[in-house]
C-alpha cells in the first residue's frame, strides 16, 4: 500500500521529466527554471508550462514567435542574461501573457510596437538594462498594464504622450535614469497611479501642473535629483499622498504653502538640500505624519511654527545642520506624541528653558556634538518620560545639580567630551553623578575636569569640597571681605570674615550686607567702616571682557597692590601695615627712593659738566676759525 502511494506521488515527476530539457528544472505546478549554457528558448511541454524562468543564461536573441507554442504560458522571466536583441514579432501570438520580466540584461533598443498585441499584459519589467530611448508607441496596446518598471537605464528624455494609453497603471518606476526634464502633461492620463518613482535622475525643475492628475497617488519619490526649483502648489492635487521624498536635491528655497492639502502624509524627507531658509507658511494640516527628516542643510534657524501642524509626529531628525545656531522657544509646541528628537551635530549655543515643555511623550533626546555651554536648570521639568539623553561633545562647563531633578525616568545619560571647569560651581552635578552612578554611561571615559590644570583629568564623581577649596580662602590680615558679582551686577554682597572666630581659613561670615550697584559706571567705589578698619572696595564691570570673571575676593589693607586670576576668581592682594614683612618693604622703598634721588643728582651734575666742556670746545673752535680767515687775508 505504501509503495502504491509513493509511486502515485512520483508518477507526475517522472512524466514531466520526460519533457524537461537539460539545464532545466520542471515543477509539477507548471513552472520551469532554466540556467547555464542555454542560447535559445528550450522546447517544453506546451500543455503544462505556465511559468518560464530563464536566469543567467547565454540567450542573446529572442527570435520571431519564440513563445507561440506555449498557449498556457502566463509569466515569462529572462534575467541576468546576455539578451541584447528582440525580434519585432518575438511575442507574436502570445497575447495570453500576463507578466514579462526582462531585467538585468543588455537591451539598448526595443522595437517600436513589440508589445502592441499583449492586451492582457499586467506587469512589464525592463529595469537594469542599457535602454537609451523609449518610442512613443512602445506601450500602445497595453490597456491592462498595471505595473511598468523601466528603472536603471540610460533614458534621458520621454515623449509627452509615451504613457497616454496606460490608463490602468498603478506603479511606474522611472528611477535611476538620466531624465533632466519632464513635460507638464506627461502623467495626465495616469489617474489610477499609486506609486511614482522618479528618484536618482537629473531632474532640475518641477513644472507647474506636473502632478495635477495624480489624485490617487500614494507614493512620490523625487530624491537624489538636481532639483533647484519647483513650482508653487505643485503637490496640492494629491490628497491621498502618504510618502514624499525630496532629499538629496539642490533646493535652497521652497515656495510658501508647498506642503498644504496633504492630510494623509505619513513620511516626508527634505534632508541633504542646501536650504538657506524656510517660509513661515510651509506645512499644512498633517496629523498622520510620523517621521520628518530635515538634516544636512544650510539653515541658520527654522520658523517657530514649522511643526505646529504635525501633531502625530513620533520621530523628528533635525541634525547635521552646521549653520544651525539657535532654535525658537516654541518650536516643539504641538508635538504631544513625539518619542524621539535628534538635534545633534548642529552648532547650537544655548537652549531656551521652555523649549521641551510641550513634549510629554519624549523618551530619546540627542543633543550631542553641539556647542552648548550650559543648560537651564528647569529645562527637563516637563519631560516625565525621558529615558535617554546624550550631551557628549558639547562645550559644557557647568550644570546645575538640579537640572535632572524632574527626569525621574532617566536611565542613560552621556556627558563625556565636554569642557568641565572644576570650581565650586561644579559640585552640584558632581554630587548628582555620585548619587546616580548607573545612569551616566560614560562617567569612566571622559566626564572629567578640563580646568584648572591641577585637576585636569580628574573624574567629576570623585570631587569633594576639600578638593575645590569651596568657601576656604587664606587671608593675610585678621579680617577680610569677600565680594561676589552676578553676570549682570545690580547688587554687591559683602561678607566680613573674622579669622579670630573661624581660623585662617574660616568660612562663617560675621556680618553680611547687600549694597546696590549702578550699571552705568564701569568702576564703582564702595566704602564700609567698622571699629577696627576701613574697607575700600573697587568694583570694575568686566562683563564685556571675556578674559575676566565676575567674582572678586578682597584682602583688607591700606591699598590693593596686586591682583591675579585663579580657579574662576580674581584675587586682589594688599600688604599688611605692620610686621617684619611690612618693615622690610618700607625699608626697601626708602632705599630705592634714596638711590633714585642719588641717580637723579648725579645725572644732573654730569649733564652740567658736559655742558661746560662743550662750551669750552666751541670757543676754541671759533677762535681757530677766525685765525684762519685773518691769515688767508694777509697772504692775499
Automatic annotation (TrEMBL):
Instruction: Please give the GO cellular component terms listed in this UniProt entry.
Output: extracellular space
- What residues form the membrane-spanning segments? 584-607
Q: Which keywords annotate this record?
A: Glycoprotein, Leucine-rich repeat, Membrane, Repeat, Signal, Transmembrane, Transmembrane helix
- InterPro entries, sorted: Cys-rich_flank_reg_C (IPR000483), Leu-rich_rpt (IPR001611), Leu-rich_rpt_typical-subtyp (IPR003591), LRR_dom_sf (IPR032675), SLRP (IPR050333)
| Pfam families named among the record's database cross-references | LRR_8
- SMART domains of this UniProt entry? LRR_TYP, LRRCT
Q: Where is the signal peptide?
A: 1-17
Q: Where is the LRRCT domain?
A: 418-471
Q: Which PROSITE patterns match?
A: LRR
SUPFAM superfamilies, per the entry: L domain-like (SSF52058)
Protein's name according to its UniProt entry: LRRCT domain-containing protein
Amino acid at each position: 500500500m505504501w509503495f502504491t502511494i509513493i509511486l502515485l506521488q512520483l508518477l507526475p515527476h517522472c512524466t514531466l521529466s520526460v519533457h524537461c530539457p537539460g539545464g532545466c528544472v520542471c515543477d509539477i505546478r507548471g513552472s520551469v527554471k532554466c540556467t547555464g549554457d542555454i542560447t535559445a528558448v528550450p522546447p517544453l511541454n506546451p500543455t503544462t508550462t505556465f511559468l518560464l524562468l530563464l536566469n543567467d543564461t547565454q540567450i542573446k536573441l529572442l527570435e520571431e514567435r519564440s513563445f507561440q507554442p506555449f498557449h498556457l504560458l502566463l509569466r515569462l522571466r529572462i534575467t541576468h542574461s546576455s539578451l541584447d536583441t528582440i525580434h519585432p514579432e518575438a511575442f507574436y501570438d502570445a497575447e495570453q501573457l500576463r507578466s514579462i520580466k526582462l531585467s538585468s540584461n543588455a537591451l539598448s533598443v526595443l522595437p517600436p510596437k513589440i508589445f502592441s498585441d499583449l492586451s492582457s499584459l499586467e506587469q512589464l519589467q525592463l529595469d537594469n538594462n542599457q535602454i537609451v530611448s523609449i518610442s512613443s508607441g512602445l506601450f500602445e496596446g497595453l490597456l491592462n498594464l498595471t505595473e511598468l518598471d523601466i528603472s536603471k537605464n540610460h533614458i534621458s528624455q520621454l515623449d509627452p504622450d509615451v504613457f497616454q494609453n496606460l490608463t490602468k497603471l498603478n506603479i511606474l518606476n522611472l528611477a535611476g535614469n538620466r531624465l533632466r526634464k519632464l513635460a507638464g502633461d506627461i502623467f495626465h492620463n495616469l489617474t489610477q497611479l499609486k506609486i511614482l518613482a522618479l528618484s536618482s535622475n537629473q531632474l532640475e525643475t518641477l513644472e507647474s501642473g506636473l502632478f495635477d492628475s495624480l489624485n490617487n497617488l500614494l507614493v512620490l519619490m523625487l530624491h537624489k535629483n538636481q532639483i533647484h526649483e519647483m513650482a508653487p502648489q505643485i503637490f496640492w492635487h494629491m490628497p491621498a499622498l502618504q510618502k514624499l521624498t525630496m532629499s538629496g536635491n539642490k533646493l535652497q528655497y521652497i515656495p510658501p504653502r508647498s506642503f498644504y492639502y496633504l492630510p494623509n502624509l505619513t513620511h516626508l524627507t527634505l534632508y541633504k538640500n542646501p536650504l538657506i531658509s524656510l517660509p513661515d507658511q510651509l506645512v499644512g494640516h498633517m496629523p498622520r505624519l510620523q517621521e520628518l527628516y530635515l538634516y544636512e542643510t544650510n539653515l541658520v534657524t527654522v520658523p517657530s511654527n514649522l511643526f505646529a501642524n504635525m501633531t502625530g509626529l513620533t520621530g523628528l531628525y533635525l541634525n547635521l545642520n552646521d549653520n544651525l545656531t539657535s532654535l525658537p522657544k516654541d518650536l516643539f509646541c504641538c508635538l504631544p506624541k513625539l518619542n524621539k528628537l535628534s538635534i545633534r551635530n548642529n552648532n547650537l549655543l544655548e537652549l531656551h528653558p521652555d523649549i521641551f515643555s510641550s513634549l510629554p511623550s519624549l523618551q530619546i533626546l540627542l543633543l550631542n556634538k553641539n556647542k552648548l555651554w550650559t543648560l537651564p536648570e528647569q529645562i527637563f521639568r516637563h519631560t516625565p518620560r525621558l529615558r535617554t539623553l546624550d550631551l557628549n561633545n558639547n562645550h559644557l562647563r557647568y550644570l546645575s545639580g538640579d537640572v535632572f531633578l524632574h527626569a525621574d525616568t532617566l536611565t542613560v545619560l552621556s556627558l563625556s567630551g565636554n569642557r568641565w571647569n572644576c570650581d565650586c560651581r561644579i559640585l552640584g552635578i558632581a554630587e548628582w553623578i555620585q548619587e546616580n552612578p548607573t545612569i551616566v554611561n560614560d562617567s569612566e571615559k571622559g566626564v572629567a575636569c578640563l580646568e584648572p590644570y591641577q585637576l585636569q583629568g580628574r573624574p567629576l564623581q570623585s570631587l569633594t569640597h576639600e578638593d575645590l577649596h569651596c568657601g576656604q580662602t587664606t587671608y593675610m590680615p585678621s579680617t577680610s571681605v569677600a565680594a561676589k558679582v552676578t553676570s549682570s551686577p545690580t547688587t554687591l554682597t559683602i561678607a566680613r570674615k573674622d579669622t579670630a572666630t573661624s581660623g585662617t581659613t574660616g568660612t562663617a561670615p560675621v556680618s553680611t550686607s547687600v549694597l546696590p550697584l549702578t550699571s552705568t559706571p564701569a568702576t564703582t567705589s564702595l566704602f564700609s567702616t567698622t571699629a577696627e578698619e576701613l574697607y575700600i572696595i573697587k568694583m570694575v564691570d568686566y562683563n564685556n571682557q571675556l578674559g575676566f570673571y565676575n567674582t572678586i575676593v578682597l584682602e583688607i589693607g591700606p591699598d590693593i597692590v596686586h591682583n591675579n586670576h585663579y580657579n574662576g576668581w580674581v584675587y586682589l592682594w594688599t600688604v599688611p601695615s605692620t610686621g617684619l614683612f611690612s618693615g622690610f618693604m618700607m625699608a626697601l622703598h626708602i632705599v630705592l627712593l634714596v638711590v633714585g634721588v642719588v641717580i637723579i643728582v648725579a645725572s644732573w651734575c654730569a649733564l652740567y659738566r658736559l655742558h661746560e666742556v662743550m662750551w669750552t670746545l666751541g670757543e676754541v673752535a671759533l677762535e681757530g676759525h677766525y685765525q684762519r680767515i685773518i691769515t688767508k687775508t694777509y697772504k692775499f
